[in-house]
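question for whoever is on the cluster today: can someone run the full assembly for these? two chains, 593 residues total. i dont have access anymore since they changed the login thing
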Amino acid sequence: MTEMMATRDAYGQALVELGRQMDKIVVLDADLSKSTKTALFAEKFPLRFFNIGISEADMMGTAAGLAASGYIPFTSTFGVFATGRVYDQIRNTIAYTKLNVKIVASHTGITVGEDGASHQALEDIALMRVLPNMMVVVPADGRQTYQAVKAVARYEGPIYLRLGRPKVPQVIPAGLFFELGKAQLLKEGKDLAYLAAGITVKPSLEAARILESQGIDAAVVNVHTIKPLDEELLLQVAKKTGALVTVEEHSVIGGLGGAVTELISEHHPVPIIRIGINDTFGESGTPEALLKKYGLTSENLVNAGQAVVQKKRQLSC
Amino acid sequence: MPVISATAIEELKLKAKKLRKDVISMIYRAASGHPGGALSALDILIVLYYTVMNIDPKNYLDIERDRLVLSKGHACPALYAVLADRGFFPSDWLDFLRKIDSPLQGHPDMRRIPGIEMSTGSLGQGLSAANGMALAARLDGSRRRVYVILGDGEIQEGQVWEAAMTAAHYRLDNLTAFLDYNGLQIDGWIRDVKSLEPLAEKWRAFGWHVLEVDGHDYTSLLEIIDRAHFHKGAPTMIIAHTVKGKGISFMENQADWHGRAPNKEEYVQALAELEK
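^ ran it for u. tokens below:
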């Protein structure tokens, strides 16, 4: 059986290791340290942990001040509070200043689950992506998160790292290492390509396997860095396959689908279908029930894959 | 209290005249900017940058320097005038305030201007950043100090009070805040728009050591800053009673001069007043 791990758990563990290696790392939280898993760091390094209380705006500004003094602050809370709630603070005091602040959202997307729409960040990638100087990273599983957190710590500049609440299986092969800005071709294919991020990598791989039995050869790319996009690899895949399906646990507007569509339409137009949340808020339910209801399943991805291939064929007629 | 002679105070007053001219000239040439709040905060900046703060313009990134965050970023012409005069950057930069390709942006940009410790302009955010700097100083085991200047209208922003709680909770006694209490905001008198009173009691209730001072009286400012430095276990808020547009008769206490530049005639009159 595949090992299950929540990306936020991997984050908590990686922070502890980084805390030992890098004495400039400090961690800030806004009263959610048990959920965001920064409590692990707090326990080991109490003097380098600051609970700012339920004051996310203040947390971002405090982190900026620490970064301006040479520290490497990681700030953690849920995705809705880490982005939209503090947008102006991030825009003016972190992105504009290009300060070395790491914004790590532990609960994002529809799989936040039972807490419902108020707590399900479905627009956070879009918000962060349009800010100059901001990098946006969405790891696919626990191991990749562990590697990503370490890469993020060593990168100088503001980064939004998008993690998730539920336990997820390992999908990235152990030997495939994370590199900021480098998308990962997980499966070759010539008929279409799934471009996925985060927990949607797994159903994309499953969909590709199902299509294979139908004689359709689908590639799968893990686009863990949404900004900057790995333009070289994505264009290469677009040229080879001529049909793309973007898959994300986020609005189809402004996130991975938006970013890919901007790139592809400008440089190598091919049919694209964007799978994600269709411009709507979420709701309460189990993560599994929500993923099903909102179409983030391998079955739905198979349908999208068939449809995009159909589109490609119609265009070439 | 730092030893400062009557002569030194007179020198600061002369300096203030020169810097007020710089502020007015800068805004006149830019044909936009915020003279009122710049002139109300200027004397606080003068006391800090010419007598109090440990800074070295030639080594302006020295880790041990004291920090100042101008949270009311729109008052930056005052800070630009002071930084140029202290040698952080060439004085001729002042000629290009708010012009294309100029380092001197309409609101302070730490990435373009030596001596600017934090980019500000969107109100309510400077105290949080100053808290972060004060926490960093403590982590470093350093005696360096952090100063922050808040606008009075600015503290209507909720984030200020989040930050006020943080500073008190972490007992940031290496942090000294100034409230430039000139009583006016863009739409008029603060008491009419949204009152701040009882102001000192608010900050005390938030756990701060609170002092009040005439924000244009150098001797009093020096004495009160000294008291702030010696207070342990809590951050200090110095409520500085100031006059918006201080030093230019027709700008004083006028909300209209919050954010407009003088025309030629007004400019000439302002300079003439400062020559007296």
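summary bc i know u wont read the tokens: The domain at 6-275 of chain B is CATH 3.40.50.970 (Rossmann fold). The radius of gyration of chain B is 17 Å.
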